Amino acid sequence: MDVVFSIAQERNIRVMNGVITLTEVLVHPLRQGDLALAQRYRMMLTQNQDFQLCAVTEFVAEKAAELRARHNLRTPDALHVATAIEYGCDTILTNDRGIARVSDIRVLILDDLKSDPPKS
């Protein structure tokens, strides 16, 4: 992920996450009792000038329902995609191949991208 963030910073790409991302990333450290890691994740997503956390609005909820119905997505995935669309993103970066069937937005699969940083 460091490569992704450095490319985003280098190319002045705005990185946005739905607030549901906070829920998803906190589960593992909280299960493990790793409060320090949970706090680092919290800070990374809420106190980082390189990120914008986006709220789930009524439009996002309605769009998520439409995406679930059309593409058989799970609710969290539909919320991620709907949030990206609502907030004007042109691409969504994910490792969930199920999201790739969505045609409303460009979907990049993280595992398909080269892990080597681009050469200058």
How would you explain this protein's 3D organization?
This protein has helices at 2-10, 20-32, 35-46, 58-71, 75-86, and strands spanning 15-18, 51-54, 91-94, 106-109. It has 120 residues and is an alpha/beta fold. It has five helices and four strands, in the order αβααβααββ. The mean pLDDT is 88. The protein has one domain: Rossmann fold.
Count of folded domains:
1
Strand content is: 5-15%
Distance between the termini: 19 Å
Overall pLDDT score: 88
Count of DSSP-assigned helices? 5
Quote the CATH topology: Rossmann fold
Helicity level, as a percent range?
40-55%
- Please state the second-level CATH architecture: 3-Layer(aba) Sandwich
Summing up helix and strand content along with how strands pair, one would put the structural category as alpha/beta
Shape label: globular
Question: Which characteristics define this entry?
Answer:
120 residues, Rossmann fold, two-stranded parallel ribbon, 5 helices, 50% helix, globular
